[in-house]
Amino acid sequence: MKLGGSVITHKGTSPPATNDENIHRITKELKTYKGGIVVVLGGGAHGHQAAHSYGFGDPTTNKERLLMGIPHIRHNMSILALEVESALNEGGIPTVVISPFSISTLKNKQIQSFSTTIMERALESGCVVVTHGDVCFDEERGASILSGDTIAVYLAKKLDVKSVYIGTDVDGVLDDNPTLNPSAKHIPVIDHTNREDVLRKTGPSKNTDVTGGMSKKLNELLELAKQDLDIVIFNLTVPGRLTSLLSGESVTCTRIIP
To answer: For the chain, what percentages of helix, strand and coil (3-state, to nearest 5) are there?
Structure first.
């Protein structure tokens, strides 16, 4: 379950602030599900603003400046993860945070190593695992951002996952930016017949985003769809929609299939 940064933080607010109302509502909806779950947090204001200020996302930024950004980004993401962990535990959902910085390394922005051993042990013990987009050491660049979307896809391949739900602030994938074009149309299904057309129409987020925006998200999910999983992008800001999705009910969303 990916909780989009635009949902759990006030993404356009500086300094970063969590959206406590949404976090507590999501907690109540997650509690309706009785199976194992990994919650992946998008960085939102906490991750993207700090990363942007140190030149992440700019290929010309030197290694020294990127490395200098690690403490700031790590601090912000730790605060966000703690807020979500606290809400889940207080809501009666036993939860532990496992940060990617401590268990993974990158090479030229790609995952080189990512240990899932502790996550698997935590899930077996009955805990919900919270992880998040993070800054990680990069063998070639010094440091790079590992996005929550990339983590969700990676874990779906490594763990015994049946469904991948990506919660955003819109009703799935649209054919244009709804902020700029109020007539943007919802795309209910993305498959081999329309993927290229959809990818041409999608682009970076309208907010500060150093992880590639919607087009990168879709490319990763389309690759994952080959594993025949239930992959859904949906509007997590709508109360009750997550509950319906977890209970198997039909909801407005975009489903990604091979």
So the answer is: 40, 20, 40
The pair of structure tokens assigned to 167 is: 């919660």
The confidence score (pLDDT) of residue 76 equals 97
- Backbone φ and ψ for 160, nearest 5 degrees, come out as -85, 75
Angle formed at CA 227 by CA 197 and CA 232, multiple of 5 degrees: 55
3-state secondary structure 1-70: CEECHHHHECCCCCCCCECHHHHHHHHHHHCCCCCCCEEEECCHHHHHHHHHHCCCCCCCCCHHHHHHCH
Tell me which residues of the chain have a pLDDT lower than 70.
203-213
- Domains along the chain? 2-256 (3.40.1160.10)
Question: Of the candidates 95, 112, 221, which has an alpha carbon nearest to the alpha carbon of residue 166?
Answer: 221
Strand 128-132 with 38-41, pairing: parallel
Q: How far apart are CA 4 and CA 43, in angstroms?
A: 8
Residues in the chain: 258
pLDDT in tens, 79-126: 999 999 999 999 999 999 999 999 999 999 999 999 999 999 999 999
